[in-house]
Amino acid sequence: MTEQLERLVEENAMVRPQGEDVVTVVAVVGGGTMGQGLAQTISQHGIDVLLIEQDQDALDKATQELSDNLDQQINRWSITESDKRAILTRIEGTTQLEKVEECDLLIESIPEIIEQKKQLFEVADELCPPETVFVTNTSTLSITEIAAATEREDQVIGMHFLNPVHRIPLVEIVRGLKTSDQTFRFVQRFAGMLNKTAVEVFEYPGYVTTRVILPMLNEAMFVVMEGVASAEGVETAMKLGFNFEEGPLTLADKMGLDELLFWMETLFRELGDQKYRPCPILKKLVHAGRLGKKNGHGFFKYDENGRKIAGFDM
């Protein structure tokens, strides 16, 4: 019996993170849609979260939206009331960036403006313990350039999560020029703690998912703009023809049309490839304030629960 117990302890020690590899507190900076999703997902897996916003109004908005999203998941029987209480109990909202000194891992999820990300990491570099790993959730910007704002360039890495974070089982782990193997293995184990499948990516504009999906979404928009098929026709053709759960225009609405436009303009500028030239209809919708599901109107109209209620109109 003693030998069996010793063997079980030894085997358990082999798979459980030890020492510096233990992640007990994660700071998520930015309480937008992605920040909320990260906070929920990390908390669901038993890890304490500091959700940091720039001011109290933004923090109150983020926490209310997170609570509302959890209520929607309860209504869909995805989680229970007790699950919601447990998730929120492990999330501490704050406007004090100084509290990052408590974290083992810092994930930034602020807008895709590289100077803001560099400024955040520069300040956090002074506040965090030297062993804290910095993660950027950017989908198009340079990890290397962001890392250069710190004195720990080997401990800066990208983790590109997709929305909704709690449902998408993938994360791209993106190395910068100076990212160490130790840092990569650390975040790879962290991804495993979240039950995510990690794909290693070396830094290049758009990585894998963003670079591959954008031309398809853009081409679907051109098909509609050129009158080849209606928006509903494109949706039906792609869903039935390729067994997609949702059509490309619905996916674009879910991702956020303003985000898509930014990513496409970034890749077009960085790579100079015409396949990333944003479709004029995308620009028109964004300029009209039609951003997708986030504000209820993109290619289609949506109710407050994100359900489609009207077809395409221009």
The biggest beta sheet is recorded as: 8 strands, mixed
Provide the spatial order of strands within the biggest beta sheet: 3-2-1-4-5-6-7-8
Q: Rg, please?
A: 21 Å
The CATH superfamily of the largest domain is identified as NAD(P)-binding Rossmann-like Domain
CATH class of the largest domain: Alpha Beta
The helix-and-strand class reads: alpha/beta
In quaternary terms, these chains amount to single chain
The CATH architecture of the largest domain? 3-Layer(aba) Sandwich
Intertermini distance: 73 Å
β-strand number: 10
What number of structural domains do the residues give?
2
Low-confidence stretches: 1-19
Could you say which overall geometry the principal axes of the C-alpha atoms support?
Answer: globular
Give the percentage of residues in beta strands.
Answer: 5-15%
Helix content: 40-55%
Count of helix runs:
12
Give the integer mean of the pLDDT values.
90
Q: Output the helix-strand order.
A: HEHEHHEEHEHEEHEHHHHHEE
CATH topology of the largest domain: Rossmann fold
